[in-house]
């Protein structure tokens, strides 16, 4: 049994300003001061020797969980955020801050538990107005300027209120202090990470975030950050992909805590991966189609297919030197391979004619860009491949065909292929003449730079041949 002098008992019971309860190791009440009597309507004679669970009602289960924790581990426990208790006799709500401490005898054996309860209800009307209007952090700042302690109290209550509001939402919420210690979470966090609220409370945020995370930088810089994608750790050490926003909680001009709102994007990632696989399959089908069309031209006219491949090689070398990539480069690659596909409609004897073409034959040749467009327009390309093929013989001054387009009306991709097409045609062998070589080809595009051909494309084409040592096979 615990032996306490009467004077000391009187001092504790009547002058402490706290609720004081002592329970033995079996949970029975052995000490109960007038502070407790005033707020419960139960005197010491009513509760002495009875189990604390029978004496206190409307107490959260976590209170008794903490009591059991102290008894089993002989370690003190603080209940925070604030817990809501009730007057038994008047049934009026009040807010309490509770400390639970182990009590040891002279041989350090635990003989019971001391419970200290502080009434921190300071302004019920104000709190009800805060909860009614949900002023969140803006009210916190206004309140902090008046009284920092009152603002901190409000923050604990507000976080508790927010947890209730977000219990059914998918977003997780974690609040940690300047030491990186987690002070509050919501049920969604517990579900996503596999920790209970008791396990999360008091551990360091680094148990959850990766080493590379910038979450802790919010404490240093006081600026909110938004992640594109990061992996948080679950209790079982497995990672989950998340998107999060980490915002500072600033009091009196200083970052006091950080609130992290995050969303599990595992399902979205799985969908993205499936879409990537589908895209790869679709792209392979498209590439197979392009290669099949090119092969069709090659079977009918080996010269045309070889010409298309060489034009594509030159065009890609030009845009690579210009630093162009992504969809535009892909468009030039596909359109280059197929830019003369329309020639499959032209008789082979005209394509391979060793002599000069007459006017009728020339007009027939000029139909190939329109025919190529008609062949390709029914294919669902991501890029404007059919229009590039249609325009690759257009010229800046409007002298090209089939539509006499000028300047910026001609797609840039078509302007690139136009230059590559002319260079390859002059430099390579033709049925009606031997190859002229690269120098006459470059002289031709330089002579018409800005007149027929795009200036930048010409400059980069000349550069890859004369400065970079590019060669045609």
Key attributes of the depicted protein:
Beta-Lactamase; 6-stranded antiparallel sheet; 5-stranded antiparallel sheet; 48% helix; alpha+beta; 473 residues; Hypothetical protein af1432
Give the overall silhouette.
rod-shaped
- What is the class of the largest domain in the CATH system? Mainly Alpha
Strand segment tally: 11
Our count of domains comes out at 3
| Ends apart, CA distance between termini | 101 Å
Which class do the helix and strand fractions yield? alpha+beta
The CATH superfamily label of the largest domain reads: Hypothetical protein af1432
Give the radius of gyration: 40 Å
The helix tally amounts to 21
**Approximately what portion of the residues adopt beta-strand conformation?**
15-25%
Give the second-level CATH assignment, the architecture of the largest domain: Orthogonal Bundle
Largest sheet: 6 strands, antiparallel
Helix content: 40-55%
Identify low-pLDDT runs: 86-92
CATH-assigned fold name of the largest domain: Hypothetical protein af1432
**Mean pLDDT rating:** 80
Architecture overview:
The chain has three domains: 6-120, Beta-Lactamase, CATH 3.30.450; 125-265, 2-Layer Sandwich (Beta-Lactamase); 269-466, Hypothetical protein af1432 (Orthogonal Bundle), CATH 1.10.3210.10. The protein has 21 helices and eleven strands. The chain has helices spanning 6-15, 34-40, 44-47, 52-55, 61-73, 124-133, 136-146, 148-165, 187-193, 197-200, 217-221, 266-300, 302-322, 326-338, 348-351, 359-365, 368-376, 385-391, 412-427, 438-447, 455-466, and strands at residues 19-24, 29-32, 77-86, 93-104, 110-119, 172-177, 182-185, 225-226, 230-233, 239-251, 254-264. The strands form two sheets. Strands 6, 7, 8, 9, 10 and 11 form a six-stranded antiparallel β-sheet that branches. A five-stranded antiparallel β-sheet has the order 2-1-5-4-3.
